Amino acid sequence: MGLKKHGITSETIKNMILGAGVIYKNLKYEKASSGWTGTPLGATSGGLKFNYEAQWLDVEVDGATVLIKGVSKQKVGESATLEGQMTELTEDILVNALHLVKSTSEDTTYVKYVSKENITEADYLENVAYVGTLSSGKNVIIILPNALCTEAFELETKNAEQTTFAVKFECTADLENDSLNKLDIAIYYPNAVV
Q: What string of DSSP letters covers 44-84?
């Protein structure tokens, strides 16, 4: 038997990612109640981008001039981000993206927000999550806990064009964890049996 010229199988049609997906905040699974619950962050345009990257230490050992399995590469950290272009501007998005606090408004028909000197624990979302849909109709869920929006806020508006602005959330470790050398990222992939 020769080697195949493609990787398509009978399962391929069920496993393709369709659409841009949704950014959720504070997504969790409640077995006793309604299953998955969370709040969509808002409408996006142009898709979403999840990035996971491990940091590696190249261990140099005298006598070895090539990489050695189990010795030469050691994982020393990791980072994960979720980003997208928001096309919806709400109070919630402004507060989460810019880490704002309410202030006294001179005009009572508006809520006034101002910048603050330092971020606090309240600026971290419990999590942000990417929820995408496979061609089978089932969801793939990627949860980044203790998320902090770190993207610069730039709003450029033009006539007859849709306005978007970037949000980028970084996953952080919780100080309560015993191990501070890995993130608590969780990826939920649908069970084939269900």
A: EEEEEEEEEEEEEEE---TT--S--TTTSEEEEEEEEEEEE
Q: Is residue 90 part of a domain?
A: yes
DSSP single-letter state for residue 4: P
User: Domain of 168?
Assistant: 12-188
Q: 44: closest CA among 83, 18, 80, 17?
A: 83
- 144: domain CATH number is 2.30.110
Q: How far is CA 116 from the centre of its chain?
A: 24
Residue 44, CA distances (Å) to 29, 77, 99, 164, 167 in order = 24, 30, 20, 8, 10
Query: Is there a domain that residue 38 lies in?
Result: yes
Average pLDDT over residues 78-94: 93
Helices (H) and strands (E) in the chain, counts: 2, 10
Report yes or no: 107 and 181 within 8 Å, Cβ to Cβ.
no
pLDDT of 179 over the 90 cut? no
Angstrom distance (rounded) from CA 125 to CA 176: 16
Of the candidates 152, 157, 184, which has an alpha carbon nearest to the alpha carbon of residue 168? Answer: 152
Lowest mean pLDDT among 9-18, 70-79, 151-160: 151-160
> What predicted TM-score, i.e. pTM, was given to this entire model?
0.88
